[in-house]
Design a protein that fits this description.
Chain lengths: 247, 251
């Protein structure tokens, strides 16, 4: 318990260091642009592929579980849309990103720690936590909502593709379903969750990497911890945010 | 000049440095020598502020370095250059970007002036036609030299070198030693070198302190080290069979 409280305290001290005033904003701007590419653009592919198949599976499962003629067929489209917007585009995408981006951040920063690159920054008078991590946090906070939008669009397209290809419903029915009783707030809800999850992924993973002590084995462990802790926190905050935003 | 007074440092209750007091002189190559695990690196990292000490004082000229916070330390940190044991070059940056990094971070020079300074520093350490290479593409000796170029890019007053010869062949090691000594004299820096390489000691040791089990056992220069009365120092200095034979012949 004491160890857990110590870690939580250390995490908040770490955040204070990360959010202190940058030495030279122009350098931070360049770093942030780089992180957009490394953490954002390179994630589009995996998010698109997973969302496509996720949308397809949701549609098929909804279709096979609502065969009763009492249910209108367009509900399959509606179910696909709401499942993707409410849960899959934000939470499932965040879990995937925790694996991809989280492990990447933890291993990158952990390796910099064990090879004394972070010490080299500190010796120069650079706030290493802020220089290395703030651009990553900003980049993911700004770019992950874009990834979520991509996940929503591709996911719904995947649903439509599976529906029409398998013939479980017609294209017209599916399109009618995804337009039916649309609540724009669901998009806002999804975006708010995405921003929280982006912060969790980046800060928790960076924290794990920043305090690595040892060698390559510890870097590997930090990377694993980053994914596990980020995923657990994402699931926990998913419950909290859902209660707060949808109740 | 850097002065250390009554320095103590421990990790989880295990004392690593015990009441170390020493003065490192300006314009000289000061050496900290000792066996592996004797506390050399901890002492060096404490002096530069990477480890917070338990008690004692670290003075840079008239500033009590270990009692001021990170923001106040920045002025002194900007006058430091450090060569790490593993070079600590930034993997994602090329050679010239590594050397340019402190200039980008702490100066308002134009890109042309920065390029000029980068090329000057790289030429000074004899790195030619490697500006666009990444650290992974360099040999161990080249990495050390690029790290030295990065360390001197801001004209530091203080240069710290942690095991500069580790992993290098004897000829390259001598070149690195000579480079450190030349730069120390050229820029009139206070240089502190951590080493357990006796070749370095005899080449560049203008002031030497010997540490054993976290305690300073001896202080002197390269001319005095061979005639010391300190048993632990003699065990260290004459550890290899060649040195033992030379000592017996001398006697």
């Amino acid at each position: 318990m004491i160890k857990l409280l110590t870690q939580i305290g250390l995490y908040f001290l770490f955040l204070k260091k990360v959010f202190s005033k940058p030495e030279k904003p122009s350098i931070y701007y360049k770093q942030t642009m780089r992180e957009f590419v490394y953490l954002g653009l390179t994630s589009i592919g995996i998010i698109a592929i997973i969302s496509f198949f996720m949308g397809a599976v949701i549609t098929l499962q909804t279709a096979y579980n609502t065969e009763n003629p009492i249910y209108p067929k367009y509900l399959i489209g509606l179910g696909c849309r709401d499942s993707i917007i409410l849960e899959f585009s934000s939470t499932v995408a965040a879990l995937i990103l925790a694996g991809k981006v989280g492990s990447n951040i933890a291993s990158e920063i952990g390796t910099m720690r064990v090879t004394e690159q972070i010490d080299a920054l500190e010796i120069m008078g650079v706030n290493s936590a802020s220089y290395l991590i703030l651009p990553k946090i900003i980049a993911t906070l700004l770019f992950n909502p874009i990834l979520t939008l991509i996940a929503i669009i591709v996911g719904i397209f995947g649903g439509w593709f599976a529906a029409t290809l398998s013939g479980v419903i017609t294209s017209e029915n599916f399109i009618y379903g995804i337009q039916y009783a649309f609540i724009p707030y669901y998009i806002t809800y999804s975006m708010i969750k995405t921003v929280f999850f982006a912060f969790i992924i980046t800060s928790v993973s960076a924290f794990q990497g920043y305090y690595v002590d040892g060698g390559s084995l510890e870097v590997g462990r930090a990377s694993t911890k980053a994914v596990v802790y980020s995923s657990v926190l994402i699931l926990l905050f998913n419950v909290i945010l859902t209660q707060l935003l949808l109740s | 000049m850097i002065s250390v007074k009554n320095l103590n440092k421990s990790f989880n209750g295990n004392s690593v440095l015990n009441d170390i007091s020493v003065t490192f002189e300006t314009g000289k190559t000061n050496l900290i020598i000792g066996r592996s695990g004797s506390g050399k690196t901890v002492l060096l990292k404490s002096i530069v502020g990477l480890h917070e000490v338990d008690s004692g004082e670290i003075w840079y000229e008239n500033t009590l370095f270990n009692k001021i916070d990170f923001n106040d330390r920045k002025e002194i940190l900007s006058e430091m250059g450090m060569l790490f044991q593993g070079s600590a070059l930034f993997d994602s940056l090329t050679v010239e970007q590594n050397v340019r990094f402190p200039l980008d971070m702490f100066t308002e020079k134009s890109p042309e002036e920065k390029n000029e300074r980068v090329n000057f520093c790289l030429n000074r350490v004899n790195i030619i036609n490697a500006n666009k290479l990444f650290p992974a593409e360099l040999s161990g000796g080249m990495k050390k030299r690029v790290a030295i170029a990065r360390a001197i890019s801001l004209n530091p007053k203080y240069l710290f070198c942690d095991e500069p010869n580790s992993g290098l062949d004897p000829i390259t090691a001598i070149l690195i030693d000579e480079l450190i000594k030349e730069l120390t004299e050229e820029y009139s820096m206070t240089t502190i070198v951590n080493t357990h390489d006796m070749n370095s000691v005899m080449e560049i040791g203008e002031k030497i302190i010997f540490i054993s089990d976290g305690v300073k056992c001896w202080e002197g220069n390269k001319n005095e080290i061979l005639n010391s009365d300190c048993e632990t120092l003699n065990d260290f200095v004459f550890a290899n069979s060649l040195a033992k034979k030379l000592r017996l012949t001398d006697r």
